[in-house]
Amino acid sequence: MLVIHTIAELQSVLQTERQKGHTIGFVPTMGALHEGHASLIRRSASENDVTVVSIFLNPTQFNDKKDLERYPRTLEADCRLSEQCGAYIAFAPSVQEVYPEPDTRTFSYPPTDCVMEGAMRPGHFNGVCQVVSKLLTYTNPDRLYLGEKDYQQIAVIKRMVADLGFKVQIVPCPVIREESGLARSSRNTLLTADERALAANIYRVMKDSLTLGYDVQQTHDYVVEHINAFDGLEVQYFSIVDGDTLADVASWDDADSIVGCITVFCGSKPIRLIDHIRYK
Ligand code: PAF
What is the value of pTM for the model shown? Predict the structure, then answer.
């Protein structure tokens, strides 16, 4: 596997691959790779001739400096895992390489980018669109692999890809969970063993809510009350929304696809965890 740090070298290697008629799969990451990323890389490697994994902790999508500072940085291990999963290129540029000038572009795809995470973390999706649009321009892939763990992010990126006319197929990949049901996330490494066990209740309660036959409001209240009942868990929001537009729904008949998206503070630090569940 090649570890590449500059855009020029990446583009030169990919040009050669394209001249050979090879297809390119792209997995964007911020590093701290875990089994969730591994599943995306393996899938890309099985569906494309060449898989590029970007490892870039993008500062423009962090509206909380502390969150950026404590984000785990594990480049060597990330490269090892990428290679084991079949990546051909790990692209790990510096901040200066990606942002030689401050990026002043603004992206706006309501309601996808202004509800839930968009409301809680102003500027977050703008930063995601800034970096993903740059990375897609450098790599020009046939397929883009994104984890459904960040459900809202996929909805926003779909809009951006359509808006900017990138000719790339978006491949959403299912959440990888620990045996306890806890969604795999780079942030889980920041949890103690006890907090990890506690956090497993988030998905358990959401799963229980599938079986109750409640209406939308009752389902919402059930999930929030039952998660908040655990000492050390605090729901920031739980929104039951149209699975495509992310607009709130009031009834199960309001959309063809409906998901519940949740953010929970866990433990004493606390660590902010996100997850979702599909209702239909
Ligand atoms: O999902 C992530 O890890 C990031 O938001 C992404 C897509 C790599 C952009 O920095």
Answer: 0.94
Among 5, 22, 34, 37, which one carries the catalytic annotation?
A: 37
Catalytic site includes residue 37? yes
Domain of 263?
186-274
Is residue 180 in some structural domain? no
Asked, for residue 139, whether it belongs to a domain, the answer is: yes
Q: Which helix (H) or strand (E) holds 29?
A: strand 24-29
- Same domain? 200 vs 158: no
> Checking DSSP bridges between strand 258-266 and strand 2-4, what pairing results, if any?
unpaired
Measured CA to CA, the distance from residue 28 to residue 188 in angstroms comes to 19
The pLDDT tens digits for 147-156 are 999 999 999 9
Query: Does residue 205 share a domain with residue 139?
Result: no
For the segment 69-78, what is each residue's pLDDT rounded down to a tens digit? Answer: 988 899 999 9
Task: Give me the chain's average pLDDT, please.
Answer: 97
Please tell me if the CB atom of residue 92 comes closer than 6 angstroms to any atom of ligand 1: no
Last residue of a domain, one of 119, 145, 173: 173
